[in-house]
Amino acid sequence: MKPLHESNPRARIAVLPERVRNQIAAGEVIERPASVVKELVENALDAGAKSIRVELEEGGARLIRVTDDGGGMPRADLELAFVAHATSKLFDVHDLDHIASLGFRGEALASMGAIARCAITSREPHATTGWRIECAGAVTSEPREAGAPVGTSVEVRELFYNVPARRRFLKTTATELGRALDVIQRLALAHVGVAFTATHDGRRLFDVEAGMDLRARIRRTFGADLADALVEVDARDGGSAESGGDVRLTGFVAPPRFARGDTTRQMWFLNGRMVKDKVLLRALRDGYRGFLFDTRQPVAFLSLSMDPAAVDVNVHPAKFDVRFRDERRLFGFLVSSIRAAVRTTDMATPGARMIDDVVRREARELPFHAPLVGFAGGSAPSFTSGPGGARAPITVHEVPGRDDSSADSHALAATHAGATARAMPASALGGVGGPLLQVARTYIVRPLEGGFEIVDQHALHERIQFEEIRAQMARGAVETQRLLVPELVELSRAEMASLSDHFETLTRIGIDLSAFGETTVAVNGLPARLARPRPAAIVRDALAVIENARELTAERLLEDVLHRAACRSSVMAGDTLTDEEMRTLIERGRHLESDQTCVHGRPTRVRFTAADLERAFERR
Ligand code: ADP
Ligand code: MG
Q1: Quick one: 163 exposed, middle or buried, by C-beta within 10 A (0-12, 13-18, 19+)?
Q2: Is residue 274 within 8 Å of residue 323, measured between CB atoms?
Q3: Are strands 139-140 and 512-515 parallel, antiparallel or unpaired?
Q4: Strands 63-68 and 151-157
Q5: What is the predicted pLDDT for the residue at 203?
Q6: Could you write out the DSSP letters of every residue in 364-417?
Q7: 26 vs 169, more confident
Q8: DSSP-assigned states of every residue in 101-164
Q9: Among 3, 55, 212, 381, which is disulfide-ready with 216 (CB 3.0 to 4.6 Å)?
Q10: What phi, psi does 574 have (nearest 5°)?
Q11: Whose CA is nearest to atom 23 of ligand 1?
């Protein structure tokens, strides 16, 4: 066998040549065109760019070019740019404790140079000329002079041209393009103040101007329907020095009705870095608990700023996961801040949404109306994808290759029809004057100024009871209604054992249980706020919660038991209500912070504005 190691012919272990090392490292950093886009745009941001252009061809597989107006690189830096572990952002190991730049590993350009044909052209602000260097298959050219504007342009052509296994692994053009666009959009939302443009095969895909704030960027990216419904979050947690000091959470949360089947509209930014960290995603879910069906994913755009020393971003080369120094405290802060904002979102289902559904359905049925769905309004052109361009045009607001969620289509339909914000002014929601009408013994129709709403009586009653008892619990004063004669419920020995561990906890929501012999539990009292308490059912529900929970905290137990109790003891669909009862129900709802979804996340009301009606009657 040919010796691999020059200095010691007998050794079987050899240090891999740099070229091979870079190819291996490239596998971790560069998975697909979207990863190249991410690394190049992050480099541009680190260089202080105020304007960034991304050009793609064939979904990025043929060409990715990122051009910025940042600080540029001198000739000497260009010579090192493709060398592995060469970085200007980190000097020694202590710097790893407080990384403020997006890059620091010095791997990205070296990786690209190993698996694509790359070139960098760069010019510093005061230099008389620019320089260009090329690198393909890890072989780097001498830099040569080149005329160029101030800033840097990096070109990555024929990604994986020398790694056929990887190249085969790439998905269709539309899918790769969709992922690249997703990265561009996320970074554009994370960096307000920086202008972004993206083109595909010469056609404009996406752009935001430097002066657009976050809401304007979201509107451009996902449509006016979503942007107008967002509620702002701005919260601060002044932690101790060891826990990492001040933490600030800013951004927007969307009303629960915008939730989707996937997490593509959950965007978390940590000190300007796009992250997909599990702790953050979990905090978001918990913030929406009770406002959403468990299988739906909320939509939110949230930015966290904290001392870089309080978080470790060097967990994985792609830097999506991070580790927080004081995860527990951060988690609590995030959940409560998100929750407070979610409560104030407008959770009524707008009547316009139902009308849009009809409009859309008709547009689909009538072929001559079809273009209505295809053409984006304004300056944004659409692009076709796939062989022969036979598919329906996809508008630029959609990420191709993803399944279409209804919330998005609504946003689209609304954009096409030129609709503007439909939110009702808060002043229009007050007052219980006017007649109330019960329909189908299930819904209450209630006039509003400039419209009307339809309330689901069961869903609303359930939310009211839940929220009222929870508010009492927060004050530490849940009123308990004692039963004149305790109700006895027979259980198995095992059930008795697991339930009795929680007797104490359950008193906090006004449920008073005690053991009555070995297999019988006595229900002595229940929350006074429950309209029609059913003791045996509540005991069974508590057991079900205890048995099904993966990790059972006291808060979780109380909340879940309360959910079920509120549901069971509410007026049902089919119950006839008197005028007085309807009025009381709606009045009690108005005193709550959130009366707009039932505890399972179903909306409690659908609201029609005059504009919705005009639309339905085709008056405009
Ligand atoms: P890292 O970003 O982790 O430092 P990279 O391989 O991405 O590693 O980049 C290597 C170095 O090249 C950077 O540290 C930076 O000095 C320089 N560089 C890369 N892109 C740009 C750019 N767009 N503008 C100015 N300098 C750049
Ligand atoms: Mg970098």
Answers
A1: middle
A2: no
A3: unpaired
A4: antiparallel
A5: 95
A6: HHSGGGTHHHHPPSTT---B--SGGG-SPPB-TTSPTTSPPPHHHHHHHHHHHT
A7: 169
A8: SS--SS-HHHHHHHHSEEEEEEE-TT-SSEEEEEEETTEEPPPEEE---SEEEEEEESTTTT-H
A9: 212
A10: 105, -15
A11: 44
Kindly state if the Cβ of 351 falls inside 6 Å of ligand 1: no
Stretch among 284-298, 383-397, 490-504, 546-560 having the lowest mean pLDDT: 383-397
pLDDT in tens, 108-146: 999 999 999 999 999 999 999 999 999 998 889 999 999
Residue 88 Cβ contacting ligand 1 at under 6 Å: yes
Instruction: Identify the bridge partners of residue 521 per DSSP, sorted by sequence position.
Output: 489, 515
CA distances from 292 to 243, 345, 431, 551 (A): 32, 13, 28, 20
pLDDT digits (tens, 9 = 90+) for 270-319: 998 888 889 999 999 999 988 887 788 999 999 999 998 888 887 776 67
- Please list, in sequence order, all residues whose beta carbon lies within 8 angstroms of the beta carbon of residue 239, skipping any fewer than 6 positions away: 245, 246, 247, 310, 326, 329
d(CA 609, CA 615): 10
pTM listed for this prediction? 0.70
Share of the chain above pLDDT 70, in %: 83
Q: How many CB atoms lie within 10 A of CB 61?
A: 22
Residue 112 is predicted with a pLDDT of 94
Q: Which ligand is nearest to the CA of 80?
A: 1
**Tokens encoding 230:** 């967002």
pLDDT at position 522: 95
| Radius of gyration, alpha carbons of the chain | 30
Contacts of residue 38, Cβ cutoff 8 Å, sequence gap at least 6: 183, 187, 274
State how far the Cα of 333 lies from the Cα of 235, in Å rounded to an integer.
9
Ligand 1, residue 111: give the atom nearest the CA.
Answer: 6
Q: What is the pLDDT of residues 3-23, one digit of tens each?
A: 444 556 678 887 877 777 777
Q: Residue 615: pLDDT above 90?
A: no
Residue 144 tokens read as: 């040569």
DSSP state of 17: P
Cα separation, 463 vs 467, whole angstroms: 6
3-state class (DSSP) for residue 481: strand
Reduced to 3 states (helix: H, G, I; strand: E, B; else coil), residue 197 is: strand
Q: What is the pLDDT of residue 551?
A: 76
Q: Which atom of ligand 1 is nearest to the CA of 154?
A: 23
Angle 535-537-538 from CA coordinates, rounded to 5°: 65
Rounded distance between C-alpha atoms, residue 246 and residue 239, angstroms: 5
Mean pLDDT of the chain: 82
Give the position, in ligand 1's atom list, of the atom nearest the Cα of 70: 24
Sequence-ordered list of residues with C-beta below 8 angstroms from that of 307, at least 6 positions apart, any chain: 98, 244, 245, 246
Comparing CA positions, the residue from 488, 492, 472 lying closest to residue 480 is 472
Nearest CA owner, ligand 1 atom 17: 81
- Tell me if 106 CB under 6 Å of ligand 1: yes
What is the mean pLDDT of the segment spanning 77-82? 93
Q: Which residue has the tokens 């929350």?
A: 527
Does ligand 1 lie within 6 Å of residue 69's CB atom? Answer: no
Instruction: Output phi, psi for 56, to 5 deg.
Output: -125, 145
**Three-state DSSP state, 233:** strand
